[in-house]
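Q: I'm writing up a methods section and want to include an example of the input and output format. Could you take the sequence below and give the corresponding predicted C-alpha cells, formatted cleanly so I can copy it straight into the document?
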Amino acid sequence: MSTQPVHQHPAPPPAPAPAAAAKLRTRITKHAAADRWLPAFDRDWGAALEESRATFDLTALHEVVREWQGRLDTAGAVEAFVAGGFADTDSVALEDVLGARR
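A: Here is the clean output for your methods example:
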C-alpha cells in the first residue's frame, strides 16, 4: 500500500503571457464601456503592481489579468442577457462567487 496525501492542491493556472496586460488594456479601450472599465483596470493593475513590488510575487498581477480577461470574454453574453430584458433580481453577487476584491 502506498501513502497518498489526503488533500492535494490543484496546480495553479499557467501564468499569462508577458504582454497579456498590454493586450488586455488595448481590448478594453475598444470596448463600449471603455470610459468606465479603463480607469477600473488601471486601478486594479496599479494596486496589484504595488503588491507585487512589496512581496516579490506576481500572483496579484496574474489574477488581475485573468479577472479582466474573463470580464471581456463574457461581456457579450452579459450584454445580450441585459438587452433581452431578463429579470436579474434573484441573482447572486459576483463577490459571493469570486470572492472579495483586494
